[in-house]
Specification:
340 residues, mainly beta, five-stranded antiparallel beta sheet, 3 helices, globular
């Protein structure tokens, strides 16, 4: 009896630690009826100092078809520990079944879209189907761009990932260049896919980046941990990025990319939080440099620690030597502002 009680206790802890399922394209949220372009501009991009334009896309459904379109807006409900508070979801099927109500039925939708040649070239693949993508130009004001994401898939079941892997990529190039660079890669250079991140018996790989199977904060059968896509760039140059996901080999079983709101940093962003919980704190006694540099003339900086202005700290960088909540406010002579 004691052993039985212990098992029940562990199961309950495991379940409640993830909390409630996310909402996706909830009719109560105005963002659920945004176009994919407006979602990028208003949800994904983190600064009004950023220049974003020249959009093109291939998605299924109109903005108001909230239950059937292949993309949309997600939000973390109270009590959930899904890692992102809100953001954009892009799928090779339908976005709505990813959340809202717990459903044990496999998410398996075709959206009747074609494949994507850029994706196939970048990954050396053929036979992609149901590709959803958004592509846009931007001008970075910093020398490194980044954003946070995770991948979830119905191909996570402990066996299927050994033989199948839906395709997705974050394809970056300077405008005028012909070759893309895929930013959806692990530190070891392997691309992010169910085949390269899983805990399957027959093909286990990169388990440090795998969050687990059947996590009840979405309806997908498994997902990665939070990952960061980043790349060096030249400030004030025009770049093009294409965010794309597709079925590969067949059109069965859906996969999705979740992009964290405000995490696409192309200017005026201090990067990810540095905390013990996230595993990346600063070391005691060793300064940690926060860099808010924007490549724009007439830029001024104001720094705060625990909501108190740090008088005299007006440079683009700030050396942190003690615990606290740090904030920078940036004003640009051109008329825009940013903070983080």
């Amino acid at each position: 009896m004691k052993n039985f009680s212990l098992i029940v206790f562990i199961i309950c802890i495991s379940f409640t630690s993830y909390g409630q399922i996310i909402t996706v394209n909830n009719a109560a949220d105005a963002q659920s009826s945004f176009s994919i372009e407006k979602l990028v501009e208003d949800i994904l991009i983190s600064s009004d100092c950023s220049t974003v334009d020249t959009f093109s896309s291939q998605v299924s459904g109109t903005p108001t078809q909230t239950t059937t379109k292949s993309y949309g807006y997600f939000k973390r409900p109270q009590g959930s520990t899904f890692p992102f508070e809100e953001g954009i979801i892009l799928t090779n099927g339908r976005a709505f079944p990813a959340g809202n109500t717990i459903n044990s039925t496999r998410i398996d939708n075709t959206n009747s879209l074609g494949g994507d040649a850029d994706l196939q070239t970048a990954l050396g693949q053929v036979n992609t189907f149901d590709a959803s993508y958004v592509k846009f130009n931007f001008v970075p004001l910093v020398n490194t761009i980044s954003f946070r994401f995770l991948m979830a898939s119905e191909e996570y079941d402990g066996a299927t990932e050994c033989n199948f892997a839906d395709s997705f990529a974050f394809l970056l190039r300077e405008v005028g260049a012909t070759k893309y660079k895929n930013l959806a890669v692990l530190p070891n250079g392997q691309r992010v896919s169910v085949r390269n991140i899983n805990n399957a018996t027959g093909c286990r790989a990169n388990t440090d980046f795998f969050e687990g199977y059947n996590i009840p904060d979405t309806n997908y059968d498994g997902r990665t941990k939070v990952l960061t896509a980043s790349a060096p760039v030249t400030p004030n140059k025009v770049y093009e990025i294409k965010i794309v996901v597709a079925d590969q080999g067949d059109d069965a079983w859906d996969s999705a990319i979740f992009l964290e709101a405000g995490s696409f940093s192309i200017g005026g962003n201090l990067g990810v939080d540095r905390t013990i919980k996230s595993g990346n704190p600063g070391c005691g006694g060793k300064p940690l440099e926060l860099d808010a540099t924007l490549a724009l003339p007439g830029t001024t900086y104001k720094w705060f620690k625990d909501r108190v202005e740090q008088i005299g700290k007006t440079e683009a960088t700030f050396d942190v030597t003690s615990d606290g909540i740090y904030r920078v406010e940036i004003d640009v002579a051109a008329g825009c502002s940013s903070s983080d």
